[in-house]
Design brief:
Blueprint: E1 13-17, E2 27-31, E3 39-44, E4 48-49, H1 57-65, E5 68-71, H2 78-83, H3 96-99, H4 102-115, H5 121-124, H6 129-134, E6 146-147, H7 149-159, E7 163-166, H8 170-176, H9 182-198, H10 203-214, H11 218-227, H12 236-254, E8 260-265, H13 275-281, E9 285-289, E10 294-298
Parallel strand pairs: 3-8, 5-7, 5-8
Antiparallel strand pairs: 1-10, 2-3, 2-9, 4-6
Length: 299
Amino acid sequence: MKKFSAVLLVSLVTLASFAQDENNTLLWKISGNGLDKPSYLFGTIHLICAEDAILSDNMKKAISDCDEVYFEVDMDNLFEMIGAINKMKMIGDTTLKDLLSDPDYQKVKSYFEKKGSMLPFSMLETYKPMLAASTLEEGSMPCDNTAMMEQVIMKEAKSYNKKVKGLETMSYQAGVLDSIPYKLQAEQLVEYIDKANSGESDDTEMNEMFKAYKEQDLKKLENLLIATDAGIAGFTDILLYHRNQNWVEKLKSLLPKKSLLIAVGAGHLPGEKGVINLLRKEGYKLTPVANKVTRLKEI
C-alpha cells in the first residue's frame, strides 16, 4: 500500500527547484516509427503533497502541443466513475468479516472508525481490501493537503480544451484486483494495521518513495514499489506488466493518428516490461526530456 497545501506565499519568496539528475526524468518523447508528430509519456503519482504537484515548463508545453491527453482511465467521465462503483465490491457479497478471524475483523473495524473516512465502514468492508486500504493513504501523508498529479495535468489540459481519455476503463482497473485472492488482500490490511498500532511506521519507506519520485529516479521508484508491497510482488504481472502490454497494443493504433500526452503511474514506465522498453521494442524512439520543476517557496 503506497502512501500522497497549496503553499501559502508570503511577501518574501524565493525560487527553488526539484533536484534532478540529468539521466532521471518522468517525461519522455515518443518519436520515430513513421510518426509525423511526437507524443509524450509522463509518469504520475496518484497521491502527493499538493505543494509538490507542479508541472515543469516542458510538461506544460507537451500538454499544449498535443492533440489529446490519455490517463490510465478517463477521469473526465462521470458516468464511467459511477458505473465502476459496483466493481469495487468483492464478488459474491463477500465482506471482510468473511475473510478474517473475529479479533482481526474487530481490529480492522476499530482502526477504520478511529481514522475516519469519507465512506462508512459498513460500505468499505464490502470493497476489495486493497481498495479499502487506499482510503487510509491520505491520512498517512506527511502533509495536510494532498493532490493527484492526474488532476493537475487534467486541469492544465482543460485550459487548452484538450480531450481527455483513458487507456482502460475504471471497471477493468477495479476488476484486476479480483485476480489477487481477497484473503491475501485482507491479511495485508491486517498486517498494515498491526504495524500502525504498534508504532512501527512505514514513514521511511513512504518518504523514500516520494524522494525517488521528486528526483525522478524511475529505477529506484520501481524497486520501492515492488519491495514495499509485501506479498504482492508475486502479482506484479497482473498489477503492472499485463496492463503495460495492453496499453502499448492500444498505443500502437493511436500514436500514428494523433499527438498524445500519455500520463500513467510512474511505476509502469521503467524496467524490461515497462512501457518505455515495450514501446522501444515496437520501433519507437523514447528520448528523455528535461523535466526540472521551478516553484515558489516560502522563506
